[in-house]
Design brief:
The chain folds into two domains: about 45 residues, no CATH class; about 200 residues, Galactose-binding domain-like (Jelly Rolls, Sandwich). The chain is mostly beta strands. Helix content is about 10%, strand content about 30%. The relative contact order is 0.21.
Length: about 250
């Protein structure tokens, strides 16, 4: 029987040693499974995810500075055809930009005119010259900007929207122009809708441009990757003309 006494003594030593490594459960606690922590000693709950990016109000103490994160924001580069206008119906024509069109609304126009562009000599017409189109029109999409967005920073987005001249006193050619601009893939997308409705310029005076802006902030810790950093520009409404030019995203400092 001596060996049984020895085994029981060793078991008591083992149990005492185990108990010294784990804090005792509070008095009156519920028994727990071996190998798990007792109630009140669970692992800390995971931290909640950071909030998504959001639109922020304009604050004049911060200015948009530094390089433009958008590549080919004035649509100068690409495989432009002969003449002053190229019809674009697929991606890979305008450098750094993908084009998304549907069967109803078709391609866009890529126009070259020193006197009509807001920046440089080329710009895009999202209607492709077609009449009274409804949403969604064509979408311009760019991924992986020149300089990656950073969590904990704020940015300003700017787009020049243009309306075309009247074809005559009884014909309204362009306004109102409605365009949506969004950045970052869902679920953290930020989106803003721009409406440009100026008086049409006289015939022969070219495109009338207006600059539209909004600002957004990316909370610290928000996960960003090259695949979810996008900018999309979608035409929502326009009659034969939605001019888009001089697209930029800049850091606020």
């Amino acid at each position: 029987m001596m060996w049984k006494a020895i085994v029981m003594a060793l078991a008591r030593v083992r149990d005492w040693f185990r108990g010294s490594l784990v804090r005792p459960a509070p008095r009156g606690s519920v028994p727990h499974e071996p190998g798990s922590l007792p109630p009140g000693y669970e692992h800390p709950a995971p931290l909640p995810p950071p909030p998504p990016p959001k639109i922020i109000p304009y604050d004049p103490t911060y200015v948009a500075a530094g390089p433009n994160l958008v590549k080919n924001g004035s649509f100068e580069k690409g495989n432009f055809g002969p003449g002053t206008e190229t019809i674009v119906s697929s991606s890979g024509v305008i450098e750094d930009w993908r084009l998304i069109v549907n069967a109803l609304n078709g391609p866009v126009r890529w126009i070259e005119s020193f006197s009509s562009a807001a920046e440089g000599k080329r710009f895009v017409d999202l209607t492709g010259g077609r009449t009274l189109l409804t949403a969604p029109l064509a979408t311009l999409l760019q991924t992986a900007p020149s300089y990656p967005l950073q969590s904990g920073q704020s940015y300003e987005v700017a787009v020049d929207l243009g309306v075309g001249p009247n074809n005559g006193p009884s014909e309204n050619f362009g306004p109102p122009v409605v365009v949506s601009v969004s950045l970052i893939e869902p679920p953290g997308a930020v989106e803003w809708q721009f409406i440009s409705n100026p008086l049409n310029p006289p015939v022969g005076t070219g495109v009338k441009w207006e600059t539209h802006k909004f600002r957004f902030a990316i909370p610290a810790g928000y996960p960003l990757s090259p695949t979810n950093q996008t900018i999309t520009i979608t035409g929502n409404y326009g009659d034969r003309f939605i001019g888009v030019d001089n697209v930029s995203v800049r850091l606020l400092t």
